[in-house]
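[recover] target loaded
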C-alpha cells in the first residue's frame, strides 16, 4: 500500500509571501525511501517538511549547517561552488528524486557547496536525527547511500578529467557523453533536463557562445537533435569519435 503525507508549505524566506497550500507527497516514490516499512514511513511522514523555492533562489548555502537531508520533488537544481573571487562554478544538476546535503550530514560538518534553483522547485527536508537513523538502521537506505557515494566519487573523478582537457570543443563533447542516459533497447540516447548554454559554460569553464557554436555544429552534422529541455543523441558513435579526437 502506498503511503502518502500531506504537509503545508512553510513560509520560508525562499518561498516569499505566498498563501499556504496543501501538498501531497508519495514517500515511496522517492527512491531512497521506496523500501521503508510502514512504521518507518510513518516516522518519516511525521518529520519531513516541504519547502517551495522560486527560480534562482539559493536552497543551500555553502558553509551552512548540515542539519538535514533534502530531496528534490519537482523542478531542477544546480550544485555550485563559489570561488574566492565570487565566480560561480556549476558542479552538477539535480533532478526530481535526487537527494542532497548528505556529505555535511554524515560528516557533521558545514555544506561544501551551494544549491540553486534553476526552476521553481519543491524540496523535502528531513531532519538530521531522522536521516541518520535511516542510514544506520535501515539496510535498504544504507545500501543505496553506499552506491550513491561510490557513484559520486566516480562522477567527480570523470569531471576532474573533463576539466583537464585543453581543447574546448572536445570538453563540451565529453560533457555531453557524461550526461547522456543509457538507452533502453530501441530508444534514443538522450541528455535529459539539458542545462542552459550559460550553465554548461559555467560548469566546464568556457563561454556561452562557445557552447552554442559547438552544439550548433553537432546539430548541423546530424549528430544531435535539440528538443525542449533535452538533447537527443542521434549518432552516439560519431559523438564518441569527436571525444576521442577522431
Amino acid at each position: 500500500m502506498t503511503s502518502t503525507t500531506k504537509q503545508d508549505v512553510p513560509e520560508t524566506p525562499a518561498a516569499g509571501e505566498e498563501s499556504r497550500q496543501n501538498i501531497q507527497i508519495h514517500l515511496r516514490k522517492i527512491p531512497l525511501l521506496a523500501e521503508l516499512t510502514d512504521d518507518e514511513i510513518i516516522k518519516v511522514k511525521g518529520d519531513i517538511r516541504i519547502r517551495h523555492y522560486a527560480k534562482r533562489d539559493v536552497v543551500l548555502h555553502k558553509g551552512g549547517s548540515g542539519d538535514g537531508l533534502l530531496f528534490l520533488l519537482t523542478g531542477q537544481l544546480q550544485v555550485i561552488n563559489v570561488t574566492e573571487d565570487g565566480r560561480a562554478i556549476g558542479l552538477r544538476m539535480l533532478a526530481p528524486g535526487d537527494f542532497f546535503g548528505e556529505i555535511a550530514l554524515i560528516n557533521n560538518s558545514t555544506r561544501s557547496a551551494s544549491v540553486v534553483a534553476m526552476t521553481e522547485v519543491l524540496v523535502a527536508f528531513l531532519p538530521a536525527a531522522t536521516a541518520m537513523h535511516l542510514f544506520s538502521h535501515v539496510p535498504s537506505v544504507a545500501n543505496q547511500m553506499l552506491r550513491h557515494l561510490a557513484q559520486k566519487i566516480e562522477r567527480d573523478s570523470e569531471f576532474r578529467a573533463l576539466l583537464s582537457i585543453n581543447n574546448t570543443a572536445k570538453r563540451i563533447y565529453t560533457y555531453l557523453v557524461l550526461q547522456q542516459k543509457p538507452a533502453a533497447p530501441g530508444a534514443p540516447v538522450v541528455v535529459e533536463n539539458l542545462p542552459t548554454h550559460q550553465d554548461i559554460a559555467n560548469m566546464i569553464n568556457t563561454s556561452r557562445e562557445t557552447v552554442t557554436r559547438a552544439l550548433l555544429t553537432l546539430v548541423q552534422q546530424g549528430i544531435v537533435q535539440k528538443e525542449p529541455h533535452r538533447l537527443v543523441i542521434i549518432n552516439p558513435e560519431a559523438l564518441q569519435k569527436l571525444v576521442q579526437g577522431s
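[recover] notes: The chain has eight helices and 13 strands.
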